[in-house]
């Protein structure tokens, strides 16, 4: 009888452990539960840290000392909130500092949305070197973007006048194990209007992948106008 009770308790504990592991696994893989997509609000400690980081940014020694002594002690929610606010303000230098802090935290896990937000911010600010650095990190951590995210990131680089970087991301998108879908291609094709030659390449790929779909090309004069504006901005 005692043996039966002991076996029952062991079985119950085993089933409970399996359930907990299942819930944890599903939570980690579910995009809707990603910590990077949750609303980020700062406490007083976060507001103080953000203010001091901006004040000390011109003093590298004091800035690094403050990061080590204070920023590294922030709660996860505060740290992510400060990073999100600096991304909104296009504070590239401070974002890269916090980017390194976050990736060293014990709770850090590679996440598509974390890297998406960093790349979108860097695209807005035309920071090519930092983009390459972040991209190398996500490749090392084997982060995979879905097709929609690839399209959004590529469009951000195109809108910022960085076609070479956008097409490098496009090559990654084409080599992705994620099955291609039509909507990101349409987003990219619209962003490529100022770059007719590149647009033709993507258009050919689109028609090969989706032979029953139609690409609506803008009038020729729209291509010429977009090309003229691009050349005028570069002069």
UniProtKB/TrEMBL annotation:
Alphabetical list of InterPro entries matching this protein: PPR_rpt, THA8L-like, TPR-like_helical_dom_sf
UniProt keyword terms in alphabetical order: Repeat
Organism: Tripterygium wilfordii
Name the record gives this protein: Pentatricopeptide repeat-containing protein
PPR repeats: 146-180
Superkingdom to which the source organism belongs: Eukaryota
